[in-house]
Amino acid sequence: xxxxxxxxxxxxxxxxxxxxxxxxxxxxxxxxxxxxxxxxxxxxxxxxxxxxxxxxxxxxxxxxxxxxxxxxxxxxxxxxxxxxxxxxxxxxxxxxxxxxxxxxxxxxxxxxxxxxxxxxxxxxxxxxxxxxxxxxxxxxxxxxxxxxxxxxxxxxxxxxxxxxxxxxxxxxxxxxxxxxxxxxxxxxxxxxxxxxxxxxxxxxxxxxxxxxxxxxxxxxxxxxxxxxxxxxxxxxxxxxxxxxxxxxxxxxxxxxxxxxxxxxxxxxxxxx
Length: 272
Ligand SMILES: Nc1ncnc2c1ncn2[C@@H]1O[C@H](COP(=O)(O)OP(=O)(O)O)[C@@H](O)[C@H]1O
Ligand SMILES: O=c1ccn([C@@H]2O[C@H](COP(=O)(O)OP(=O)(O)O)[C@@H](O)[C@H]2O)c(=O)[nH]1
Ligand SMILES: [Mg+2]
What we know:
By secondary structure, this protein is α/β, with parallel strands linked by helices. The chain is built from twelve helices and five strands. It has two domains: 56 residues; 183 residues, Rossmann fold (3-Layer(aba) Sandwich). Helices cover 60% and strands 10% of the residues. Helix 5 packs across helix 12 and helix 10 crosses helix 11. It comes from Salvia splendens (Scarlet sage).
């Protein structure tokens, strides 16, 4: 009996237990040998079993507790700029000009597909009111319709992604320039999985922004004009980049909110 167990446990049978085995007491009760073989074997099997379950669940059950553990692992690796392969969060960038309906459609995607919505504009506005050292610079930049430096924005996004327990994340309104995009990839270490672009005529965007009625300092005709120029000059190249990479889903942003969402649904159909 002993011989059989020991021969099945090459990893656990130490040279000591093997020599004991060879010298004598192969059939007698030996507490030390019993521990090395039976108890440690069971522990090893349990360990391997749970590692296996964890690995499987990280691939097939994104919202499970095990996935949360895997996500933490990704965070640690992302610090080094290393892509965590399939363990990373599932990130969707949501792009479009001012008033194209990004925020509105994000709310629907959240409700239907369980994403967490990170509006980068909202993150920046929070900074203004939280008395942070960058507050006044952000306020001035938003008022002028320009783009806040990548150093500030990417840090806010990275922190928000790391704070999220949810693996599915919508990054709304970013990257707004090629420089933004490159900085994000350098700091966070991964590319987005999907990029949505709400394509809307300028006159419609201006009309929506001027009717938005949220008390925003940039919802006025002068700022919106500047934002449209910035959008054409700096944001369109980003959209082109993702289009060439085959990641872009261009959505017609005209019509009712319902009609637009109908066009969004197929993009995420596989995630239902
Ligand atoms: N399909 C639509 N038709 C008319 N108004 C819309 C539509 N989608 C959004 N809006 C309104 O237009 C304004 C801008 O929408 P929002 O989602 O904030 O756009 P963005 O985030 O791209 O600036 C909001 O007041 C919103 O309620
Ligand atoms: O990545 C970003 C996102 C926003 N902004 C600034 O925040 C403003 C408002 O952005 P938001 O996405 O809230 O506006 P929206 O497009 O939804 O109207 C922009 O015009 C920019 O000045 C920025 O600098 N970088
Ligand atoms: Mg918005």
